[in-house]
Amino acid sequence: MTTGEKPSAPTGAEECAYTPPEIANSEYSAALREIEDRTQAALGALEQEGRWPEALAIYAGAGAEVDGLGIPRADPAHKPARRLRAYLYLREANALRALGRHAEATPLADMELSAAMASGDHLSIARAMFSLGTTCIANGERERGLKLLTDAKPMFAHHADDDHRQGLGWWHIVMADLSNGGFSDAPPQQALADADEALSILRPLKNWTGIARAHLARAAALERLGDTEGARVARTAARMAEAIGNNGFL
Q: Can you list the domains of the chain with their CATH numbers?
């Protein structure tokens, strides 16, 4: 893959499960909760089935609804609403990338970071930097993208909860993918090390999508190193992880 090509979606947004914050003493609580529930339903159904245009329409509409609430800064729901808005920007940008509309994803990723900063939520900010970094690289802004990704890593590593750990695991997957795709100067040995680190993080979390992706990153790195048998084994492991995730076998 040359630097002029676009990396294929997904670019790490799969790790971004949304955990709704508690919102107390606000007239906007019910409306935000309904938007959250609708978004999660779309994520669970439409994205998994590859129905990206429908998912995109739901995310864009939900974001407009959040904006339309006009929640005052002094209201307890203001920061949770900014956090939800950042998440909706992330999902909308990911849908656009899946549809090959990379240029349209860039301003949304910028807005995601702004919303995340306004929310004050550490995880949302880390995810937004991660999302914007991958989007910049997809659009040819390699230096800016790699800088954002570098800055996002310690933010994921700073906390040990499952959401931050999943983010860190996906960070290593994306770095391996960037090396394997020729978007960074990291050698195949580093790509292999990143894939292995992703596996060590994601296996205890049973994040089967991430585990499958990490095995595929291992396969690509091993092929670059001339280890065709190791690459074959890694691809088999990826298929097994994907099957476990699809069928719920443990």
A: 9-140 (1.25.40), 154-250 (1.25.40)
| Strand ranges, E, within the chain | none
Among 147, 197, 148, smallest CA distance to 170 is for 197
> What's the burial of 248, exposed, middle or buried (CB within 10 Å: 0-12/13-18/19+)?
exposed
How many residues in total does the chain contain?
A: 250
Which two tokens mark 182?
A: 């020729």
Question: Which DSSP string corresponds to 83-126?
Answer: HHHHHHHHHHHHHHHHTT-HHHHHHHHHHHHHHHHHHT-HHHHH
55-112 pLDDT tens trace: 999 999 999 999 999 999 999 999 999 999 999 999 999 899 899 898 899 899 999 9
The long-range contacts involving 181-185, CB below 8 angstroms and separated by at least 24 positions, are 181/1, 181/7, 182/1, 182/2, 182/3, 183/1, 183/3, 183/7, 183/137, 183/142, 184/142, 184/146
AA letter at 119: S
Q: How distant is the alpha carbon of residue 12 from its chain centre? A: 3
